[in-house]
Amino acid sequence: MSSPGSARIPQHVAIIMDGNGRWARQRGLPRLEGHRRGVEAVRTAMNAAREIGIRYITLYAFSVENWKRPADEVGGLMGLLEYYLRQELATFVRDGVRFRTIGRTDHMPAGVRQLLRETEAATRHFTAWHFILALNYGARSEVADAARAYAAAVAAGTEQLTDSSWEQFSRYLYTADLPDPDLIIRTSGETRLSNFLLLQGAYAEFVFTPVLWPDFGKADLQAAVDEYGRRERRYGLTAEQIKSGAQ
Ligand code: FPP
Fold it and tell me: In terms of CATH, what superfamily is 12-244?
């Protein structure tokens, strides 16, 4: 967690990429074309994040609820994901970006799983930049998975029921070794969290922008970071305590 009052450049930015469908509809194009342009926006955001100095970026690419979309859209998204991973591996390695996922990725199609494994393995040793894709992700499923793993650890005697600290429990979340997001952005004018990082975002700042995801560029990311820099993060302290440097 960052210290109270210290905003400036967020260490970890998480983005709910929304508005691909509306972007396509406005142009009379199929929804998948919006997702295709959304992939381009992912590339732009990744480069912009490194230029700005954001070390961790997490993107909500596919939620546990997204399986309910029409089968051809789900299939199209999986195809785009495979295409993106194949294309991007060399770039991650060139730029020293560690790639990881959060979510129930064991339920993703076999071809995607294989590419995820390869990309994670090839970038495992990088430490400067971190790119996290939320795939088949839902915060409630994450808590249910963590609770089950925690209960199993208690049964095995590796955890004690007397310790109910957040620090201990959070080690069972998908994000165990990731810092909490400092800034969560949602595009397309919607102002919901949609089951994204509900616990990790407990102290995050939020920026909601009307820009549709395929149009989201470096200037939009910079504007969100600037807005974040103007916020005062208090973590329960008073403004006076922050001014006097109390932590
Ligand atoms: C929300 O727009 C977007 C998604 C559900 C999928 C996000 C996927 C991508 C950006 C492309 C694939 C990503 C990678 C990393 C390869 P929406 O379809 O809900 O838009 P709408 O609300 O306007 O209909």
Answer: Decaprenyl diphosphate synthase-like (3.40.1180.10)
Alpha carbon distance 198, 7 (integer Å): 21
Cα gap 30→171, rounded to integer Å: 42
Q: Is 37 in the pocket of ligand 1 (CB under 6 A)?
A: no
Whether 194 and 22 have beta carbons less than 8 Å apart is answered as no
Give the model confidence (pLDDT) of 119-140 as tens digits. 999 999 999 999 999 999 999 9
Which ligand 1 atom lies nearest to the CA of residue 36?
11
Q: Which of 244, 237, 220 is nearest to 13 (CA)?
A: 220
- The predicted structure's pLDDT at residue 245: 77
Q: Using a 6 Å cutoff on CB, does residue 50 contact ligand 1?
A: no
Q: Is 52 near ligand 1, meaning CB less than 6 Å away?
A: no
Distance CA 5, CA 237 (A): 10
Q: How far is the CA of 38 from the centre of ligand 1 (A)?
A: 7
Nearest alpha carbon, ligand 1 atom 22: 19
> Could you tell me the residue ranges of all domains in the chain?
12-244
Q: Please report the atom of ligand 1 found closest to the CA of residue 81.
A: 16
Predicted structure pTM score: 0.94
pLDDT tens digits along 173-200? 999 999 999 999 999 999 999 999 999 9
